[in-house]
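Annex B. Sample input.
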Amino acid sequence: MSLKENINMVKEELNSEEKFFEKAVMTEKFVKKYKNVMIASVVAIVLVVGANIVYNINEEGKVSAANAVLLKLQSDPSDAATLSELKKLSPNLHDVWLYSQAIANSDIELLKGLKSSDAMIITDLAKYELAQDTAALEEYASKQNAIYRDLALVKSAVMLLNENKADKAKTVLSKVSAESSLNELVSVLKHYGVN
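Annex B, continued. Sample output.
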């Protein structure tokens, strides 16, 4: 190799080393400038993950405890202390238990109390169970998120047919949604019951 080529090669090596040191210095400046932010970010991530793990463990413990209390209630439904404990652990499960007992025992007063439950499904089911006449069933069915909307309409139409109010029954049956699984029954009622 010639002397010129050696000098050019040394210059290129120096340039590459110079660039490497320049990048190292820039990185060091960046790390020094944002060191506290990076440490705080790592600590925050660790804290959030840790808090999430503790929260999940706590929730799993509550669910297990509520299930154990529910099993205890199934063996002795009249135990008021266990029922109170269930309410503390899981208010929604408490309301589900009360609903099941109200249905099993035909307890109208208990169902009336469940109309204001925090569990929306229990509230809706209690309102359906309490609707015993055509007006109440139609009022229940007029609610947008009513679970048993179509069933309430069919039940109301059957009551109207029993009262010989075929025209009104036909109007009520026309409100049943086209996607309902009760459409076959609606067709039969329209065909045989409504003239």
